[in-house]
Structure prediction request, 346 residues.
Amino acid sequence: MISNEFKVNERDKCIYYKYDKNICTIICLYVDDLLIFGSNIPAINFVKSLSSNNFDIKDLGEADVILGIKITRSDKGIFLGQSHYVENILRKSNYFDCKPASTPYDPSVKLFKNTGDGVTQIEYASIIGSLRYATDCTRSDIAYVVGLLCRFTSRPSKEHCHAIERVMRYLKGTMTLGLHYKKYPAVLEGYNDADWNTLSDDSKATSGYIFSIAGGAVSWKSKKQTILSQSTMESEMIALATASEEASWLRSLLVEIPLWEKPLPAVLIHCDITAAITKIKNRYYNGKRRHIRRKHNMIRECISNGAIRFDFVRTNENLADPLTKGLNREKVRETSNRMRLMPIAH
Prediction:
C-alpha cells in the first residue's frame, strides 16, 4: 500500500487512504478482512487489482456482511445490524423461545460478588463473550448490563445467570434493532455521564460516554472506574477525562479522512453536572487529590488544543444515561431512538 502512494492513518494503523486528483480511496483492514471505499468504481477496482497481484484474495463484491454486521442500504440511509448474530446467540444458549422483556436490566436488582455456590463458569463466560461482541459492534443499549455482568465471570451465581436471562429476553424482542446513519449532519458530538451512587462491592462509580455522527452512535463505553471517587463531581471528572480522550482520538481520526470537511470544529461533549463543568473552566485545580488533578490537567489540555468543548444538559436528556445505570421501559425506548438504534429498514 505504501509503495503505491497510500498513507496510513496515524490514529488507526489499520486504515489506509489515497487522495489524488479529487479521487479518494480508503481501505479498512481487520486481520484478513478488507472494506474498500472509493470515489468511483475504477478507484475501487484498482485496489482490488493491486491486492490480487500481491495476495490471494476472494472478492465478495459489494459489501453486504462484514464481521457479522449486516449492511443495509436504502433511500433513508445506511443501517448496520446483527439480527442474525443475535439469533445465533439465542439459539445456541437455548433462549430463542423465551418470553421477550422490555428492558435489558431490572434496576431493582442489585448484583454483588458471589460468596456462595457458583454455577457453570464456562457457559457463563461463553455467553458473556458473545454478548460483548454484539455490544461493541451495534448494541449500545445493552452496554451497561453486559459490562456489569462481566465483573462476575470468574465466579457467577444464580442471580447473575438470571440477569443474563433478562438480557436474552430483551434481545429476543429487539433482534431487528440496528444503527441508522443519515448523510447529515456530519458532525461529531458526545454525551458523558457517571453514576456515583453505585452499590458495587468496592463502591466505585461507573463511567459512560457515547458519540454520534450523522445521527447514529459510532463510539460508546460503559466501564467501572478504577479510581475511588469521593463526590459526584470527582466521579464526573474521571468520566469526562475518559470521554475527552475518546473525543480527541475520534477527531484526529476524522482529520486524516481526505474528503471530510475541514476544519473540524471542537467536539461538543454534553455533561449533566454543573460542578464538573465549572471546575473544568477553571485553569487550575485546587483540590488535594493528585489523580483528580491529573484528570483535570488532561481535560484542560484537550480544551486548549481546540479538540473539545463542554455544554450542560439536563439529566433526563443525557444520552449517556443508559450506559451508567438501568432504566425503565420508556427511557430505554427513548434513548435507543435517540441513538438511532431502530428496526432495520428493508
In short: The two ends are 36 Å apart (CA to CA). The first helix runs from residue 41 to 52.
